[in-house]
Structure formats: C-alpha cells, structure tokens
Amino acid sequence: MRAQFVLSEIGVGLRRNLTMTFAVIVSVALSLALAGGSLLAREQVSTMKGFWYDKVQVSIYLCNKNDAASDPNCAKGAVTEQQKQEIKGDLSKLGVVDKVYYESSDQAYKHYKEQFKDSPLADSLTPDQMQESYRVKLKDPTKYQVLQTAFSGRQGVQEVQDQRSLLENLFNLLNGMNIAALCVMALMLVVALLLIVNTVRVSAFSRRRETGIMRLVGASSFYIQMPFILEAAIAGLIGAGFACVLLVGGKYFLINNWLQEKIVLINFIGWDAVIKVLPFIIAVGVLMPAVAAFFTLRKYLKV
Predict the structure, then answer these.
(1) Are the beta carbons of 64 and 129 closer than 8 angstroms?
(2) In order along the chain (303 residues), what is the average pLDDT of each group of 10 residues?
(3) What pLDDT score was predicted for residue 303?
(4) CA-based nearest residue to 34, from 199, 239, 233
(5) What are phi and psi of 243, to 5 degrees?
(6) d(CA 150, CA 89)
(7) Burial state string for 49-62 with b = 16 or more CB within 10 A and e = fewer than 16
(8) pLDDT score recorded for residue 283
C-alpha cells in the first residue's frame, strides 16, 4: 500500500511539473554527456601520448661544410670522422639510450625527396646540403634533457632536436580544449542543480497541504520526502540515459565511422574506455538530483 502510494505521488509530481522535469532531463543529459566526453577526451590524450611518445626520437644533427658560414655552432667546420665516432661512443655509454640510428646526408636527401616531393625546394637541394644525423630512441622519452646537456654546443654538433617537443603544442591544445569542456560541464551541472532545486520547491509547494496532513498524522520525514526524491532521481536517471546514448553514438558515428577513416595516424580509444565511463554517468545522474532534492526538502517538512 505504501509503495503504491509513493508511486502514485511520483506520477502526480511528474505530470504536474512536466515542463520543468523535461528541462531537468535535458540539462542533466547535456552536462553528463560533457562530463563523460571530458573523461574520454582525457583518456584519448593519454592514449595518444603513450602511442606517439613511444615512437619519437631525439635527433642530433651534425655540421656539414655549408653550415660553417651560417651557423655559429658549426664555425669550426664540418664534423670529422673522429668526432662522429666519439659522439656514437658517448651515446652508447648513456643509460637512457635504447637504440641509435645513423642517417647519412644521402639518406637524408632521399627521405626529404620522398616526404616533400611536391615542394619547389626539392629540386634545388643536393645531397651535400643535407645534414648527417644520429636518431636516438630513448628508453624514457622524458629524459631528453640528458642528451641536450651532453651534446648541445659540442664540436661537430649543429643542433639537438627532440621530436617530442613538436607534439607538445598539439597535446597542450587538446588539454586546453578538455579544460574548456570541463568548465562548460561544471556550468551545466550548476544549471541542472538549480533546475532540480526549483522543480522540487514547486512540487513541494503545490502539495504542501498533503504533506502537512501527512506530517500531522505521524508520517515520518523519510516517507514524506521519498516521492520528491524519487521524482528527482527518475528525472536524473532519464537524463543520464540520454547522456549515455550521446556518448555511445558519438563513439560509433563520430569516431568509428568518421574520424578513424579520416585520421589513420591516431590510435583512438576503444569501447572499453566508453563502457568504463557509463556506470559513473548513471550513478551521478541518479545521486546528484536525489541529494539535491533531499537537502531542498528539509525546510518543507515543518508544519
């Protein structure tokens, strides 16, 4: 009987405040979709960092005869065979180095022609203008400073370049976008909370006579609050369900059927990452409105 009464009160409350309930559902759905999207975006950035940082190398570019006049680091002329052997020997002694690849000027010229074959400069370059280099793969890509300190300014070395630094701007941009999404999500959550509070207040005010009678005949505070809390929780659950649909749809349509075909160089997150986020979205969608309703109703239990 009690359960039937609570369910009937929930139905009455949802029908009376249909417009505000719909607004709560939409705001909860959008805010939780943004929250889930932000979590997935952070996971995507971490996945990309792990994928690309494992492949980046540190390049030690050696001086050639054409650099002597234009680059102060090569003022003493092109690198000598002895200097090259010393650099290679010192690289093998460093504990942070995993592998060392040597690229001659001819190999550099060939790679340049392959990568920039449409560039107007490609036909004007000659192999002797290209620099020899050592491409170093580190055991830990964050230990770049060890090579920077050991070889920058050394005779025969023109520049020590970390490919990882070229990716930092991209990752900083992605992290900035993620922070912006989190800020929008926080704003949407505040809007959702305000709508939930107002909806509960309106519902409690419209049924103040019934709740007052229930209080006078000895009904417990929990029993009086239960229909209002469940109304808010149901609206939040529906909103969380829509948020989950948006996340799953975004993964299927946006990532799987579009981005993966357009951008093949990026290792996108899988379904396991999405599935891990969905229970969190549902839990927040139910608990946030229920808790907000509980604290909002405390003042309305006084007769």
Answers:
(1) yes
(2) 54 65 84 87 79 76 81 83 88 85 86 70 73 85 79 86 73 77 80 81 72 67 76 89 94 88 79 92 91 78 50
(3) 44
(4) 239
(5) -60, -40
(6) 12
(7) beebbeebbbbbbb
(8) 94
Between CA 115 and CA 191 the distance in angstroms is 51
CA 27 to chain CA centroid, Å, is 22
State the pLDDT at residue 1.
40
Q: Which amino acid is at 95?
A: G
Q: How many helices and strands (H and E) does the chain possess?
A: 10, 4
Q: What is the 3-state secondary structure (H, E, C) of the chain?
A: CHHHHHHHHHHHHHHHCHHHHHHHHHHHHHHHHHHHHHHHHHHHHHHHHHHHHCCCCEEEEECCHHHCCCCHHHCCCCCCHHHHHHHHHHHHHCCCEEEEEEECHHHHHHHHHHHCCCCCCCCCCCHHHCCCEEEEEECCHHHHHHHHHHHCCCCCEEEEEEHHHHHHHHHHHHHHHHHHHHHHHHHHHHHHHHHHHHHHHHHHHHCHHHHHHHHHCCCCHHHHHHHHHHHHHHHHHHHHHHHHHHHHHHHHHHHHHHHHHHCCCCCCCCHHHHHHHHHHHHHHHHHHHHHHHHHHHHHHHCC
Nearest to 135 by CA among 85, 106, 98, 83: 98
Q: Is the dihedral of CA 239, 243, 248, 252 positive or negative?
A: positive
Q: How far is CA 210 from CA 41, 128, 207, in A?
A: 48, 92, 5
Instruction: For residue 1, give the amino acid letter.
Output: M
**Cα dihedral 184, 190, 194, 199 in deg (nearest 10):** 70
Structure tokens at 270: 């899988």
Q: What is the pLDDT of residue 69?
A: 72
pLDDT of residue 118: 64
> Distance between CA atoms of 164 and 136, rounded to whole angstroms?
12
